[in-house]
Amino acid sequence: MKQERFVALHSGEWDSLQSWLSALERQPKRTMRQEQALDFPVSYRRLCHHLALARGRGYSHEVTDRLQRIVQQGHRVMYRPPAPRWHRVASFLIAGFPRLVRAQWRCMAAAAVLFYMPALITLVLMQVRPELAHTVFSSAQLADVEKMYDPANTHLGRSSGTDMQMFGFYVMNNVSIAFRTFASGLFFGVGAIYVLGANGVLIGGVAGHLTAIGYGGPFWRFVVGHSALELSALVIAGGAGLQLGLTLLAPGRQRRGPALVAAGWVGAQLALGAFAMLLAAAFVEAYWSSIAALPDVLKFGSGALLWLLVLGWLWRGGRGTSHGA
Amino acid sequence: MLDTIREIETPEGISLHLRAAGALPRAQAWTVDLFLRMGVFMLAAIPLSLFGVGGKGLALLLLFALMWAYSVVCEVWLGGQTLGKRALGLRVVNADGTPVTWLPSVVRNLLRVVDALPGVYGVGLISTLIDPHARRLGDIVAGTMVIHVSELPAGQQVPSQAAVPLPVVLVADEQAALVEFAERSGQLTPQRQEELANLLTPLTGRNDSAAVRQLIGHANWLLGRP
Predict the structure, then answer these.
(1) Does B57 sit within 8 Å of A167, measured CB to CB?
(2) Is residue A149 helix, strand or coil?
(3) A79: helix, coil or strand?
(4) Any chain B CB within 8 A of the CB of A18?
(5) Which residue of A64, A118, A136, A294 lies most exposed, with the fewest beta carbons within 10 A?
(6) Residue A168 is nearest to which of B60, B107, B170, comparing CB atoms?
(7) CA nearest neighbour of B220 among A61, A279, A233
(8) What is the pLDDT of residues A193-221, one digit of tens each?
């Protein structure tokens, strides 16, 4: 078939598909409801067929370019990502996320050791040699921390500010730390190891120092509520970073490229889960932990309950359900 | 191949041509985004300051959303384009050429931290210069790439001239070579143009500048011009 005849035969079809695709970019919802939307897959495949024919028969650039442009536009519509479904967020948080954490248990265990070991060592060392606090922190930082947990303070864990302000601050600060911990794991895990260790020393140091100078009461009363969610989320973000770095070092039976992409998907899901945990932790920290007037039983009881819930969720969540979705 | 076009075969057996976007347009898009976000934050900070210290918390939440969520939300909802990318005509696509989806977008935007590391996007710049598809580290791990939206129609720079029909049928590669010769003839010296055109004397039956003119005429005919 001559090119002119081919174009004359089909150009009406191409033009109508082109105009439908352009309309779709302007008004997606209304255009999708048109009759033509039902025919789109068929007419798109016909167009692809025409392009292949035009290429095969050596038709000129004019025709192949025109068809190529419509095909590229159509490809984006044909294979567009599905609309997000909100119930999948819930099922991910309840089942998918704990399952993913357990699947990466080696990295999670390593991250936990990297975080809790320095924390515990610093905490104990501070009891034996309290002057070490001045090696880890500057005197201004120490004064700040001491002011926050002064037993005379009516608001626990902060020197000033309202619940709302502190909620914003906790979200911004803690989630940014968690995201950076994950991302820095890409440097062969070194970044994640450093952030985990440094945060362990910092948190252990503050806890140790305050306990040593006798401010332990307000401090432990403050942190026990949100510690379960916050510390677990930090360890999970660190584990996600380690997992990414380890894949770069030892991709196993895959090539590095595809292995990294797979590890990136796992890491992003873990980071999103950690984000949700930190959001909950910030809420508890801002609105519950700061109430000073509650009895110890309630404070420590609720803290212990949260630890049980978080660990139980990570340990059992998603067991026995199907592995789909 | 020296050019930055990536070909992807679709399930229909057609190859898509994706033109990878380099560091410069992407940096420009990022700058547009940066100023946009700074503007939004400042505009929102004025009414929020009326709420006192509680407003500070809301401002921090907004800052968090602009820092971490803005790119992901824009890329997923606006078909792979943040507002800056839209202004510069760029698009983020998955490895198969479709607009970016949630998880890859999250990966590439979280790993922005690594690409941004020494100073302003040092790692990212080096990575885009080394990678054949100009991807930064975040793109490599996410399996995405940033492309130019507009497809340049071939032969835009071919000088207009009366079309001359070809005496024989040429295959696609030969047609492309002819059109590209016409496109680049403006950048060549007349001597070099004639030297190249003289290779096709068996086709044109002419020599020197007459041959060049005839080849450009053929190219115009191939492009469907009158």
Answers:
(1) yes
(2) coil
(3) coil
(4) no
(5) A294
(6) B60
(7) A61
(8) 999 999 999 999 988 888 888 887 788 88
